[in-house]
Write a structure and sequence with these properties.
The strands form four sheets. The chain has a seven-stranded mixed sheet. Strands 6-7 form a two-stranded antiparallel sheet. Strands 10-11 form a two-stranded parallel ribbon. The protein folds into four domains: 141 residues, Beta Polymerase, domain 2 (2-Layer Sandwich); 84 residues, Hydrophobic Seed Protein; 149 residues, Hypothetical protein af1432, CATH 1.10.3210; 47 residues, no CATH class. 50% of the residues lie in helices and 12% in strands. A hairpin with a 5-residue loop joins strand 6 and strand 7. Helix 9 packs across helix 10 and helix 16 packs antiparallel against helix 17. The chain has 453 residues and is an alpha+beta fold. The chain is elongated and about 90 Å long.
Length: 453
């Protein structure tokens, strides 16, 4: 008898998580230390949103924090960061600090522990440099963050150029915050991004991937965010292949909206249920058009752009260190997105094979948005969805009635011939031309007697 697996209790969220975060602050304050909620959770609270996590800032030194919270883990003790458990929740508690001598465009070479004002002044954007005392119900704002929240502005703390030179990822974070919150970039902050945009090329592929994913999935209008990356000079250093979509003309009869980049922007904005696979399938679906563009008389053609684009998409996604499963899903969507052109001429068996593909829901949504953003002819999408409804009571790809064992029982030797006859039998089954397995089997035996499949 095996022991049952323990039931996994989901971590607390919402008011329960807030109560535990308050308890962490209270424990520090009762021990005689200053402690506040810090950063994004304070910003979200002021925006009327329920924070998903809570960071805590304190004047207590890391060893003191560890002593106050059993099972605490020093994840960045040299930088004053400790992860602490409070019941079923974990919080990062960081000692107020100043950062010194950024040399790698990511992290300081050294820090000195400081007070709350100095800690706020080393942070990235004013709206992320706020503190809140949940015990006294008091906000602390040393950098004008509350005014910028009111004005809906993303403003770097202090000298924007210095902030971006310290950590180059902040160039992308500025765009993310602007487009997830629907804020504007403050003018001097935007100017500093343009001036130092090339530094984004120094950011690790993994960090670029994570920011891009959040920009494209979490932004209110992801296409506008992509255009902002381009306008600020950030797109070409990280995705030169996407930058190359600009000014790539398309046939007006099929794409009255304009060039490939404009088409991609519109598609991203049309996502109804954004997800990483869908966002990157849209971003990369026409990536093969610039290298395949040819002029056939007065008509621009992009022969094999889906196949070429799939190879390019795989290279881009591997460069950005996506997982193998993510790469397989997105690349297959790019490779297959032109198959819908043939739907009106597909046999029933081919339609069933298309609808039964594991990747089909993603590919169908990509097709829908592709049509809406260009010619707006939805006939193929309507035909496919009607066919899906027709198959609603049965699997698109049912188990095959005929097996290899059946065929070898007729004396067909194991090998390619068995596979060929199996494909022939399954296609006939999917076509629905034989009502039962026995009828299909009798027909197949007659076909085998007549010769090659």
């Amino acid at each position: 008898m095996t022991e049952a697996s323990p039931i996994q209790t989901p971590p607390p969220d919402g008011p329960a998580l807030a109560a535990l975060a308050r308890a962490a602050v209270e424990r520090l304050q009762k021990a005689g230390h200053t402690a506040y909620w810090a950063g994004g959770c304070v910003r979200d609270r002021l925006l009327g949103r329920m924070p998903k996590d809570y960071d805590i800032a304190t004047n207590a030194l890391p060893d003191t924090v560890i002593a106050l919270f059993p099972r605490a883990i020093a994840v960045g003790k040299a930088f004053g960061v400790v992860r602490v458990p409070v019941e079923d929740a974990w919080f990062e508690i960081a000692t107020f600090r100043q950062d010194h001598d950024y040399q790698d465009g990511r992290r300081p070479t050294s820090v000195t522990f400081a007070d709350a004002r100095m800690d706020a002044e080393r942070r990235d954007f004013t709206i992320n440099a706020l503190f809140y005392d949940p015990i006294a119900d008091r906000f602390l704002d040393y950098v004008g963050g509350r005014d910028d929240l009111q004005a809906r502005l993303i403003r770097a703390v202090g000298d924007p150029a210095r902030r971006f030179l310290e950590d180059h990822l902040r160039l992308l974070r500025a765009v993310r915050f602007a487009h997830t919150l629907e804020f504007a970039l403050e003018a001097h902050t935007a100017d500093a991004i343009r001036l130092h945009a090339g530094l984004v090329a120094n950011v690790s592929e993994e960090r670029v991937r994570d920011e891009l994913a959040r920009i494209l999935v979490e932004s209110k209008r992801p296409g506008d965010a992509l255009r902002a990356l381009d306008d600020l000079g950030l797109l070409a250093p990280i995705l030169p292949e996407v930058s190359a979509l600009k000014h790539q003309a398309q046939p007006p009869a099929f794409h009255p909206e304009g060039d490939v980049f404009t088409h991609t922007v519109i598609m991203l904005n049309l996502m109804e249920s954004p997800s990483l696979p869908l966002a990157f399938s849209i971003l990369l679906h026409d990536i093969g058009k610039p290298p395949t563009a040819t002029l056939d008389g007065d008509r621009i053609r992009f022969n094999r752009h889906a196949a070429v684009g799939a190879d390019m998409a795989e290279e881009i996604l591997r460069r950005l260190r996506f997982s193998n499963d993510e790469i397989t899903t997105i690349v297959e969507a790019v490779r297959s997105h032109m198959r819908f052109v043939d739907v009106p001429h597909m046999k029933r068996s081919t339609l069933r094979a298309l609808v039964g593909r594991p990747n089909f829901p993603l590919e169908l949504e990509l097709h829908r948005i592709d049509c809406l953003s260009s010619h707006n002819v939805m006939d193929t999408h309507e035909r496919i969805t009607a066919f899906q409804q027709e198959l609603a009571s049965e699997p698109a790809l049912p188990p095959p009635w005929i097996t290899g064992r059946d065929l070898m029982g007729l004396g067909i030797p194991e090998g390619p011939a068995v596979g060929a006859w199996l494909r022939r039998a399954y296609e006939a089954q999917l076509e629905g031309s034989h009502a039962t397995r026995d009828a299909l089997w009798e027909w197949l035996k007659g076909e085998i007697a007549r010769g090659t499949p």
